[in-house]
Amino acid sequence: MALLLRPHGVLRVGVVPVALGLLWYPFLRRLGTAGVNAILALTVGLLIFLVVDTLLEAGEVAVELPGAFSGIPLVILVALLTLLGLLGAERLFRRGSGEASRLSTSYRISLGIGLHNLGEGLAIGAAFALGEAALGAFLVVRFTLHNITEGVGIAAPILKEKPKLAHFAGLALLAGGPAIVGTWIGGFAYSNLAATVFLAVGAGAILQVIYEVTRMLLKDFAWAKTAVLSAPSLGGSRPA
How far is C-alpha 34 from the chain's CA centre? Predict the structure, then answer.
């Protein structure tokens, strides 16, 4: 546990795996229009898997809450309120500033993944705090491998742009940094209620991103005058 809480240890848990996924950006840019759309479809599939995984994890923690909190209904309510709040905020933003940029979409993906990773960080820290080293080590390995694929999903919306290097650092920190905070909180002051709420908020945020990326993908298909149900999109929509 002490090793995990050192700066280099927590960076390996959260930020480094996302950064490794973002390193695929130069290669992905060479895929052409069809390839970029396939990666966007893959991102939608990844996010759908991620929101299901987040809701399942939230449900597992919620059943441990006292009856007064109504665990599962609390998860559904918080996720829906988060989704509706983000959709409303996005509509107001578009009314005042026009169409959202692809870079802002990548930041929203990072935020949704970051909230999910905060909940997973809580689980990792709690496992080590309770002396379950084997479980904690398993969660770290699973978490690390999973976050590499998330880095690819974050990069997908900006494959047609050339953002500055600072944006990549910001995206990696936004997606992976909450895992560090979650690990520290879980190791010293774990709370089932906090874990449930964070995971539910993360699920709602990811649902909003699924909607946004799907709109972007449909717009790209319409611009390229290609069928939505094409081989690249159907192949990319299946998460690995």
Answer: 24
Q: Please say whether the beta carbons of 50 and 205 come within 8 A.
A: no
Using CA atoms, how far apart are residues 42 and 233, in angstroms rounded to an integer?
A: 8
The one-letter amino acid code at 106 reads S
Q: How far is CA 5 from the centre of its chain?
A: 22
Identity at 141, one-letter amino acid code: V
Position 19 pLDDT exceeds 80: yes
CA 88 to chain centre: 20
Question: 192-224 and 71-97 are packed helices; what angle lies between their axes, rounded to 10 degrees?
Answer: 40
Measured distance CA(103)–CA(217) in Å, rounded: 14
Average pLDDT over residues 162-183: 86
Decide if 54 contacts 207 (C-beta within 8 A). no
Return the minimum-mean-pLDDT range out of 113-117, 129-133, 144-148.
Answer: 129-133
Q: Let me know: does 113 contact 142? Beta carbons within 8 Å.
A: no
Report the alpha-carbon distance of residue 42 to residue 181 in Å, rounded: 28
**Percent of the chain beyond pLDDT 70?**
71
Ramachandran category for residue 49: left, alpha or beta (phi over 0 → left; psi -120 to 50 → alpha)? alpha
182 within 8 A of 124, measured Cβ to Cβ? yes
In this structure, the chain runs to a length of 240
Question: Residue 221 has which token pair?
Answer: 């298909």
